[in-house]
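Readers of this paper often ask what the protein records in our data store actually look like. Nothing more is needed to write down the fold, since each code stands for a local backbone conformation. Below, we set out a record of this kind in full and without editing:
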Amino acid sequence: MTDANTTVQEQTMTNQREQMIANKPEEQLLAEIMNMQRQNPTAKKAEKLCHLRINFSICFVRFAYAFYGLDRKQLETYTPEKLKILSKLILTKAKPRAKLEILFGFVPILGWIYLATRFTNFNYCRIYKKLQKMCGEDFICHEILNKAINGEYDYDGY
């Protein structure tokens, strides 16, 4: 009985909020601006997203070889669905190692230098989570990943 009352109260409260927003032109404008910002990222956000995707692709190619022995020619034959599954498999292997890297990061100077390098399990997990948060479930850009597989992005820079 109380669950039904709480759901009815929640529904009426959300309806009241929607009516208040509909009544105030300022709130309508703010809601419209927020929707536009979500749909059209700024140049800085788009650049950051591209940079994250490139780093993810480079780490992906490196860890596919390190964990499963898959070289670039073998990765070229995979479909996008298989690459998505492989990225999740790499993540499951990288997570425990990332925890050890974080602990090693507490060692002065040597640990900091190690974590500052770009190709660590910790960075792979961090980039994976950021891309998933920014782009949703389908965050792998296959054009950039194919360029990384073909060797257009090297490990020292791009």
Notes: Residues 76 and 149 are 7 Å apart (CA to CA). Residues 1-40 form one domain. The helical segments are 2-23, 25-39, 43-68, 72-76, 80-104, 110-116, 121-135, 142-149.
